[in-house]
Specification:
This protein is mainly β. It contains 1 helix and 12 strands, in the order H-E-E-E-E-E-E-E-E-E-E-E-E. It is about 10% helix and about 35% strand. Strand 10 (about 150-160) and strand 11 form a beta hairpin. The radius of gyration is 37 Å and the shape is elongated.
Length: about 180
């Protein structure tokens, strides 16, 4: 008995959804329910002898609406450009505390990662102890013939006005080179 009651509820719900989705939301729909020889419900949109009428009421609904998109200035516009919000800038190679041994001649590639990507008018600047040593539109710089000693390196993203938009962490790089005094 419990199984047939669950089947009845499932079938009734299916019929209501099927019939109500086929008609406009403002209409009321009549569903006719009869029973077959085994007592199972039979749903129909046509009235028959001995059928029971069920009225499906209108479901509350809200019409969809369009959200206006903000206007974006064209690339040729003279309007003030939107400043990108950089979220991270990190030097990933070499690791902090790396020592370049004698024989490398102070040659090293400094690589970083910037998120999101560099905007067209911005620049990445590589600094050593507060002094600019390289500049470009990439996060990788090849440095050749660095002087021996300690170098404190960090990267900055600068806008066209020179303002620093984001800075990386500083890393320390030690360069060992043969001295011209040691003969």
């Amino acid at each position: 008995m419990r199984h047939s009651m669950t089947t009845l509820i499932t079938l009734l719900a299916t019929a209501v959804v099927t019939v109500s989705s086929a008609l406009p939301a403002t209409a009321q729909t009549k569903v006719y329910i009869t029973r077959d020889a085994d007592g199972n419900p039979v749903f129909s949109d046509r009235k028959s002898a001995g059928s029971e009428t069920h009225v499906v009421q209108e479901l509350p609904s809200m019409p969809a609406f369009n959200v206006p998109q903000p206007e974006r200035p064209s690339e040729e516009s003279d309007d003030e450009p939107v400043t990108p919000a950089y979220t991270s800038l990190s030097i990933i190679s070499p690791a902090d505390g790396t020592t370049l041994p004698i024989g490398v001649n102070g040659d090293v590639r400094i690589s970083g990662v910037l998120t999101p990507a560099l905007q067209k008018k911005d620049m990445i600047v590589l600094m050593d102890g507060g002094i600019e040593i390289a500049r470009g539109g990439q996060t990788s710089f090849q440095l050749d013939n660095l002087d021996r000693g300690e170098h404190r390196l960090h990267m900055e993203v600068r806008g066209p006005d020179g303002d620093v938009r984001i800075s990386s962490q500083s890393i320390t790089l030690h360069v060992k080179r043969a001295s011209s005094l040691a003969r």
